[in-house]
């Protein structure tokens, strides 16, 4: 009985809503005219669809139904956004006269009064040439050359400062912690590899942690506490035969695992309290401040010509894996994040080298758009690179003249991955690169990109 009452109440609400909409649309033509009524009808239909889906019971266990609902929502929202603006009404001296469209001829036998032009005769004779419509290809190339080019002087200065700080860090670690076998620090990041840098403002410094592979082994991500194949654990082995102290890294063991948190905390204390940054900054002609509140190992460098952010990453290379001391947020410790950045850059450049392709240029444009857009910024970096790598397996024409086609195809692929909520890693299909995105974020990204498929110029407008 309760279920019946609920359904009956819902039908009555639907009928009431339908009656209001019918009455509104019936009188819209009288009030708004034909064009206005058409706009209102389209918008009303789309809104009614959204309301119907919001009030109708959902198939919680049917992923295909959820995917279809999400796609229809994006389509309806795009329909509302794309409704045409009503035409401006023509001005009439006498409202009793009929309104004629510009293309409609006057009634035969009826003389039309000559119109008075207020502009001077000289201005009337000047004919302005119509603006040239640029193709998407031309807009993309223009966007690339005008907004994505990093000034060479700034890039050179930023790298010079980063190398100087690398040298000072290396000297400090060798004198302060001679027992810890750190490798040679090196620079990394988009500014060096050229896939997504928009400005000379950020550099990664990689600090190799050299392990004796006889004393350490890797635990796969699926077997870790977070059940995420992209996070690994590094386990201390054979403690019965090689007790604690045999490895210099045993001081960072937590529960028989090399703790990324413990290592980061020790390095953070060194960066904040032990290193004389004013003296190093004076030597390099800049001001250097460690970021105290950040969980990352970050330095802010201020120079007269450039402001630079430097992030330090301890890194372990073992069993063909590159693991960063970048654990997930929360109370989970000891985890190491597998990084594919080096493999991503190498693979994209290898593919472009084979066919003289425009993958790198396409990626820089896409990364530039996503980084500067508040809705899409979480798609920049690895997700875009993996989409391009997946697409390269099926779309072989990456010549520069096909840049616009590939650009639109990447947008279509992104929408498809967002619909399912899964973007598999190119190098390990068990890893979902969308696993940390919220449902609301996926919905907003999907709606925006769905619109951009039909009108890619939306993404090239200044934010």
From TrEMBL:
Single GO BP term: positive regulation of mitochondrial fission
- State the UniProt keywords alphabetically: Membrane, Mitochondrion, Mitochondrion outer membrane, Transmembrane, Transmembrane helix
Q: Output the InterPro entries linked to this UniProt entry.
A: Mab-21_HhH/H2TH-like (IPR046906), MAB21L/cGLR (IPR024810), MID49/MID51 (IPR045909), MID51-like_C (IPR049097)
- A Pfam family this chain is assigned to: Mab-21_C
Q: Which domain of life is it from?
A: Eukaryota
UniProt subcellular location: Mitochondrion outer membrane
Q: What is this protein called?
A: MID49 protein
Q: Which organism is it from?
A: Trogon melanurus
